[in-house]
């Protein structure tokens, strides 16, 4: 259990903490950086997302190696498949974020359009991460380790944060539409 226990810790750190904080940076209601410039918020978002991706890649590597050591099949559960897809998607999303830092790389796209696509695809990736976490909470390991009311409280965390993030993204769209 020693090596395995790093997997849920790193994945929860990546998707429940770092990625959530990276997205909340742009919220005028909840961000600790709300008084900072947009440039500072973008840099903080970039750093947190990169740290989230590194934690996710490390968590994926650890579980893959642990399954190899124990002779178990890889990516055969819904949690495993969704988790792999989520980490790959997060990598692609981070690469897409580079386009916002250097929009001239995309000559036929406006910066505004790139931001909308990045935010929308980021929301999809975040929801994938929440789904993968929730599927992990349905695993035999988690349901034997966390029982009763604690299991329901743990399950509420990604559910509630995903609702907060979806609300934030939809509010950003509404604000952008009103200001145009």
From TrEMBL:
It comes from the Eukaryota. One of its GO terms (molecular function) is transmembrane monodehydroascorbate reductase activity. It is an enzyme of class 7 (translocase). It holds the Pfam family Cytochrom_B561. Residues 1-176 form the Cytochrome b561 domain. Gene3D superfamilies: 1.20.120.1770. Its EC number is 7.2.1.3. Keywords: Electron transport, Heme, Iron, Membrane, Metal-binding, Transmembrane, Transmembrane helix, Transport. The chain crosses the membrane at residues 6-26, 46-65, 77-102, 123-143, 149-174. It is found in: Membrane. Its main location: membrane. GO terms for cellular component: endoplasmic reticulum; membrane. Its cofactor is heme b. The keyword Transmembrane applies. The keyword Transmembrane helix applies. It is a multi-pass membrane protein. This is ascorbate ferrireductase (transmembrane). The gene is Cyb561d2.
């Amino acid at each position: 259990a020693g090596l395995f226990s790093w997997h849920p810790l790193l994945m929860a750190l990546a998707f429940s903490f770092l990625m959530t904080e990276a997205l909340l940076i742009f919220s005028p209601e909840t961000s600790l950086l709300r008084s900072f410039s947009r440039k500072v918020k973008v840099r903080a978002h970039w750093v947190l997302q990169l740290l989230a991706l590194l934690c996710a890649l490390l968590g994926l590597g650890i579980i893959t190696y642990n399954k190899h050591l124990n002779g178990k099949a890889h990516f055969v559960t819904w949690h495993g498949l969704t988790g792999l897809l989520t980490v790959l998607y997060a990598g692609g999303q981070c690469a897409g974020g580079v386009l916002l830092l250097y929009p001239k790389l995309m000559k036929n796209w406006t910066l505004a359009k790139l931001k909308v696509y990045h935010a929308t695809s980021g929301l999809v990736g975040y929801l994938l991460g929440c789904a993968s976490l929730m599927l992990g909470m349905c695993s035999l390991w988690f349901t034997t380790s966390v029982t009763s009311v604690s299991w329901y409280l743990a399950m509420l965390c990604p559910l509630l944060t995903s609702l907060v993030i979806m609300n934030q993204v939809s509010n950003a769209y509404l604000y952008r539409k009103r200001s145009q």
